[in-house]
Amino acid sequence: MRQLPAISRRVAAAAVSVVLIGGAAACGPEESGGAKGGGADGAPEKGGTLTVLNRAPQKQFDPARLYTSGGGNIPSLVYRTLTTRNRENGAEGTKVVPDLATDTGTPSDDARTWTYKLKDGLKYEDGSPITSADIKYGVERSFAAELSGGAPYLRDWLIGGDSYQGPYKEKKGLDSIETPDAKTIVFKLKKPEGDFPYFATSTQFAPVPKAKDTGAKYAEHPVSSGPYKVVKNVGDGEQMTLERNTNWSEETDKERHAYPDRIEVRSGLSPAVINQRLSTGSGADAAAVTTDTNLGPAELAQVTGDKKLAGRVGTGHFGYTNYLAFNPKVKPFDDPKVRRAVAYAINRTSIVNAAGGSSLAEPATTFLPNQKSFGYTPHDHFPAGDKGNAAKAKELLKEAGHENGLEITLTHSTAQNSETSPEIATAIQAALKEAGITVKLEGLEDNDYEEKVHSVDKQPALFLAHWGADWPSGGPFLAPIFDGRQIVKDGYNFNASRLDDSKVNDEIDEINKITDHDAAARRWGALDKKIGEQALTVPLFHPVYKRLYGKDVKNVVISDWTGVLDVSQVAVK
Predict the structure, then answer these.
(1) What sign does the CA torsion over 42, 47, 53, 56 have?
(2) Which positions make up the signal peptide (predicted)?
(3) Helix axes 475-482, 517-532, angle to 10 degrees
(4) pLDDT of residue 18
């Protein structure tokens, strides 16, 4: 996913949907919460209506335009994909498993070619068969300019993808996607991509029958391949009603359960209203969940004091890091000693408190998230302890010629997001003051902030940043930030340090050839540790998601892929 709000190296719009709406990644629910199987009330049953209460609408519901991790949350009820995320609690949920395909893909030519075979008996909501040609067409329409917004990988990876304009303009289609028969599809890539099975979970790999494609209006009534079909989509996703797809078969889909008969999605609500309705649980709200609204510090304190409410809080961890970003092309951060001094001075205790406390944030010293699937390798090159190491910071500043201290500017957003917001900036300002560094705060409205920090020409010397994973692997985490070939000079750039090290670039290429995820993870962890020595960023904290769910909600599953409750597992009866 990427930076959260989930923006990619090319897309910097309202990204919260990737992780918070579409579903990010997580650990299991806290011990007092529901567990898979329905908890004390017995096994989950079919029936009833699930209500989803959200802040942001499920916009751009077209599978070509969705930018979701693992197929998303609400989207994956309607769209099946070649592969999908394993619908299990905790670390087991970071695994990729087959969905429409019989396996996670067969690689050849050093992972430049990926072949998939479809399962038997796959049908759309109208009973017609799903074919490999439908998946090819679904991928190709994601290249159409009028359906932009999805993840950009295919344009980069597929042979011919960089110039292809989609099936509306180029009827021939992409030669790099072959369908030798109705159940076989082959993808030809420009370079090795061992993580291809993880990307094949995205909705761009959902089948779309060409005869039913209505272009930009397709989202209003997409043809379902999943357990639910869309019967209403109004206000650009603000209100959606899903009902059972009677032609979906659990025999071909071992990941989704489809317990509720009906799902009602209601968006445009404030966080306070959502959490109040979930806690009170009146009427339909007793069987309600949220896929995009956390409990804040004050709400969490209130909930913790109520045993019944505390038992209805799901806890999740998504692969996500909040950090300080340097621009080493400008003084004083062109000097590694100054960057290291800042790293030593950081007081992570005060920063965690500013982010909502230890229940909502965990201190970070590695750029990679602290999960095995990413290749997490514990290290702390500039140990600051809990409160910061001001003495070591002063020593380095003196060596760098700043024995009388230093004055710098920290750019942040004015949005109240507990990540790049004034509270975090103020905590950093106070910590650096102890080391003799005077920090001037530059607060920008969120859109101005995003534009400035991701522009090579306008990029500040020091700013607050964050990055979230498109899937639970080190590749989509490290490459956009540290691969020199991904520096974007005329668009949204995420390699703020402008690192272009041939050894780093070569190692990224070598790891991308590895199709054994555990083996690749170990290499990503080692690379993270090696890059960290340069102090190009200062990791600050990883967020923790705390979300309330209704009193009649059962079978709560929260994986380390999404970090949030998986609606495909929920039962309400």
Answers:
(1) positive
(2) 1-26
(3) 30
(4) 32
The tokens describing 273, both together, are: 């209203």
- Cα–Cα distance measured from residue 467 to residue 463, given in angstroms and rounded to the nearest whole number: 13
pLDDT attached to residue 491:
84
Strands 288-289 and 49-53: parallel
Look at the block and give the residue holding tokens 């993870």: 521
Q: Determine the distance from the C-alpha atom of residue 85 to the mean position of all C-alpha atoms in its chain, rounded to a whole number.
A: 13
- Report residue 560 as tokens: 């380390």
pLDDT at res. 573: 77
**What integer pLDDT is reported at residue 106 of this predicted model?**
98
482 contacts: CB under 8 Å, gap ≥ 6: 495, 497, 499, 504, 531, 536
What is the C-alpha separation between 550 and 289, in angstroms, rounded?
6
CA dihedral 130, 132, 137, 140 (to 10 degrees): 140
Q: In what side-by-side order are the strands of the sheet with 437-444? A: 361-363, 537-543, 320-326, 462-468, 406-413, 437-444
Q: What does the CA dihedral 450, 455, 457, 460 come to, rounded to 10 degrees?
A: 50
Question: What parts of the chain have a pLDDT lower than 70?
Answer: 1-42
Beta bridge partners of 467: 321
What local confidence, expressed as pLDDT, does residue 41 receive?
54
- pLDDT score for 60: 86
The three-class DSSP label of residue 232 is strand
What is the number of residues in the chain?
Answer: 573
Other CB atoms within 10 Å distance of the CB of residue 490 = 8
Amino acid at 300: L
pLDDT at 330: 95
Rg over alpha carbons for the chain, rounded to the nearest Å, is 23
By CB atoms closer than 10 A (0-12, 13-18, 19+), residue 300 is buried
Instruction: Answer whether 0.85 is exceeded by the pTM.
Output: yes
Peptide bond into 332 cis (omega under 30): yes
The helix-helix angle for 422-434 and 336-345 (nearest 10°) equals: 100
CA distance 276 to 392: 47
CA dist., res. 560 & res. 69, Å (int) = 12
Please, what is the end-to-end C-alpha distance for the chain in angstroms? Answer: 33
Distance CA 521, CA 276 (A): 41
Question: Residue 126 CB: number of other CB atoms within 10 A?
Answer: 12
Peptide bond into 227 cis (omega under 30): no
